[in-house]
Amino acid sequence: MMVLGISSCSKEKTTKNKITGTWDLDKTMYKYTSDGEVIDQGTEQNEEGDQVTFNEDGTYEVIIGGSKDNGTYKIEGDDKIIIDDEALEIQELTNSSLILYGKEVEDVDVYESWLYFSK
Q1: Are 101 and 19 in contact (CB under 8 A)?
Q2: What value, to the nearest 5°, has the Cα angle with vertex 63 and ends 26 and 82?
Q3: pLDDT at position 44
Q4: Which residue, 14, 24, 60, 113, has most beta carbons within 10 Å?
Q5: Architecture of domain 2-118
Q6: Shortest CA distance to 117 belongs to which of 44, 43, 26, 45?
Q7: Distance (Å, rounded) from C-alpha 11 to C-alpha 78?
């Protein structure tokens, strides 16, 4: 049992170490479906300078379209990040690439988004 706990902490630390730093937001993909039918989907290229910085202390700062915002984040396991109160799946995390996936479901409506970052 204790070995599993240590292994889990190790993964969290590795994920947090990899995610810490400044990431450029390259593009956002989205898909909106209602009752199984695709209503809207697309890809938006982000502006140069759009970025997020994840700090070691669990805080972040984001710049989108020249507007700044900040908040807190935490890593859960090796594939989930909670940014403020929003849970996102970490679909890819390397030294130079980060893909976050979010999904919101309300009755028959489903909104999915993928955020593509690079260093």
Answers
A1: no
A2: 80
A3: 94
A4: 60
A5: Beta Barrel (2.40)
A6: 26
A7: 6
